[in-house]
Amino acid sequence: MAALTVAMPVAGATMATSVAFVPKGCFSIVAAARMAPIKIKRRLSVVVKASPKEDIKDKIPEAIAEAQKTCEDDPTSAPCAVAWDNVEELTAEAAHQRDRNKANSDPLETYCADNPETDECRTYED
Amino acid sequence: MAAMACTSAASKTVFTPRLGSVKSVKSVRSVQLTSAFHGQSVARVSQVARFKSADVVSKGAGRRAVVVCKAADGKTVVIGLAADSGCGKSTFMRRLTSVFGGAASPPKGGNPDSNTLISDTTTVICLDDYHSLDRYGRKEAAVTALDPRANNFDLMYEQVKALKEGKSVEKPIYNHVTGLLDAPETIHPPKILVIEGLHPMYDERVRELLDFSIYLDISDDVKFAWKIQRDMAERGHSLESIKASIAARKPDFDAFIDPQKQYADVVIQVLPTQLIPDDNEGKVLRVRMVMKEGVPFFEPVYLFDEGSTISWIPCGRKLTCSYPGIKFFYGPDTYYGNEVSVLEMDGQFDKLDELIYVESHLSNISTKFYGEITQQMLKHADFPGSNNGTGLFQTICGLKIRGVYERILANQNNAATLESAKA
Predict the structure, then answer these.
(1) Which end of chain B is more exposed for a tag (fewer CB within 10 A), N or C?
(2) Which parts of the sequence are annotated with region: Disordered (chain A) (predicted)?
C-alpha cells in the first residue's frame, strides 16, 4: 500500500526540510509529487520529496550480469530461466519506452492529438 | 444482455406515440440509448437490465407505443492476441487501432506506467496486468512470467467476462519498470476489447469469451534477428547474451505459450525467406497467414478462388519488381487437426504500384473501398514490416477483425429488433 510518511516535529515554526523517503511499491506518480511546506504556528508539516524515477536503462546491465552469474552453474535450471526472463522483460520495456519517446518527440503532434480543432492543427485533404 | 437492456430501457423512457398522445407514463431515469463509448452509457443501461414488458402502455389511450431501440450498444467484442514479447505485438496493436480509427493512447490522468491503450472504439489490455506474482515473487518461486503459475486466470476470466457484459472493472496494473503490482485502474467496457499477452488462449474459460483470436508465431531465426535489432543498442547486451536469453526461455515458451496456436482463428507465421538461398540476414521474410475454416462471421482471404491451390508471382510484364521479388501462395491445408486456408507472401514491396496491384487481386479482404489496404500501409510506412508480409497480413487481419466486429454487431441488432418486435 502506498503510504507517505510525514514527520511531525516539535512545536516550533521553523522551515521544514525535505525528507526523501518513499517506500517501495508506491505509485511512480509520486515521483512527481512535491508538497509545499506549510508553516503553521504550533505544528509543522513536512515536505515529502520522492526519490527520482528509476531509469530502466540502468537496470539492464545489472540484470544481465546477474543472469549470467546465475547461469554459470546450471544453464538449464529454473533460476537461470527466471533471470533471463527478467532481462527480457526489462529490454522489452526499454524498447517500448524508446518507441513511445520517439512518437512523442514532436511537441506539435502531442498538442494536436489533444486539440485537433485549433488553427495550427487543421488538416486538409483533397 | 446489454442489447436487451437497451430495449427494456427504451420501453421505459423513450416512446414514439402512435397517433396522438400517450398519457403520461411515469418516466424512470433517463438512459442513454446511443452507443457505448467506453461503456459510460452502457454502464447505466446495465442497471436496467431486467426485461420488463410493455410498461409503456398508456393508461387511457389503449394504444401501444412503438419502441425503436437503436441498440448501438451491444455486447463488447473481445479479440485475443498472443505472442512472445518482442514479436511485433505493439506494432500490430497500432495497425489494428488505426484501422478502427483514432490513435490509441494510455489512459489520461492515471498511472503513467499503465499498459492499457484506449482509443475511441478500442481498449487494449495487456495480460501482464494479471500476473499473480510480481518480479520478486517470481524470483522467489523460481517461475518465469511464461509459466501459468505466475498468472491469475480466475481474475482474468472474471474481468473479461464482466467487460464483455458491459460492466466496468478495476484492473490491476503490472508496472514493468518497477516489476511490482500497482493499484488498480478502472476500465470501462469498450466496443472492442483486445487482450494481448502471453496467455490469452491458455485458459479454457477465457477462450470461450473470445470472439476472435490471433497468434503471432515467429520462427527462431527471425526472432533472433529481431531481438538483435531491438536489443543491441542496450548497454551490456551482446550477441551471446541475447542468444542465452532466448534459449533459457525456450522450454517454458514451448510448454505453455506455443500450444495456444491450435486454438487461434488466425496464425501469422513469420519465417525466413525461400527466395534467397542461404540468406541469413533475415531482412526478407516469408509470412504465412493460416486461417481457420468455419469461424463464425469470418471468411478467409483468398487468391483467385476459394479452396483451390495457387502459386502466384505478380512481377512480370505489368509490374517490374527488384530482387528478390514477390511470391504468393494460397491453398487449403490442415493445421493441428483443423481445416485451414493458408495465404503466404514471400518477398518485399518496393513500390506503391506493387502493393495496389497485389491488393486488387486478393479477395475477401473486407475493405470498404478499393485501395484501403494500401492506404493503411502507407499511413504507417514507418512501422516495422511495412514493406513485407508482416505489415500486409497484420493490416489485413485488422480489416478482417473490423469485418467480424460489424457482423457481430449486425447480428446483435437483428436479434434485438426481433425481440422488440415480438414483445
Answers:
(1) C
(2) 93-126
